[in-house]
Amino acid sequence: MKKLLGLAVTLLLAATVYAGDDVKPAVPNITVPDITISELKDALASGKVTLLDANGTESWQKGHIPGAINFRTSEDKLASLLPADKSALVVAYCGNPKCVAYKSAAKAAKDLGYTNIKHLPAGIQGWVKAGEPTEKGS
Predict the structure, then answer these.
(1) CA 89, 104, 41: angle at the middle one, nearest 5?
(2) b/e per residue, 67-93, with b = 16+ CB within 10 A?
(3) Are 127 and 119 in contact (CB under 8 A)?
(4) Which tens digit of pLDDT belongs to each residue from 73-122?
């Protein structure tokens, strides 16, 4: 029994070592400040925000915050869709407070040099629940 247990531990350790640094995390490790629905509405009213919807194309087609970029279909051309001013406000969002898909969009913007990136934790579900307008994708 001891030999079997020892073998199992050895295999488990080997698997852990093998996984090592070559495995990329599914969710980027990025933290950005939050923005409230009220603050986002003010930014939208002033025309001083770019929205990145990280929910995926099917969700974006069904309804997104007006003007939001479908991040999933725009990753490769994001640089041409974001403002030239790297200090411009960029807000990433996904489904709800538990969703972490926004992190991919936030990281992509950060990697392009943007410095004023925020997260709408309410996501599209909170936006809709607050009675705010959406638009369908084309």
Answers:
(1) 35
(2) ebbbbbebeeebeeebeeeeebbbbbb
(3) no
(4) 988 899 999 999 999 999 999 999 999 999 999 999 999 999 999 999 99
Domain ranges of the chain: 25-129
Instruction: Look at residue 28 and give its three-state secondary structure.
Output: coil
Asked whether 71 and 23 are in contact (CB, 8 A), the reply is no
Cβ atoms of 70 and 60 closer than 8 Å: yes
d(CA 67, CA 137): 10
**Fold of domain 25-129:** Oxidized Rhodanese; domain 1 (3.40.250)
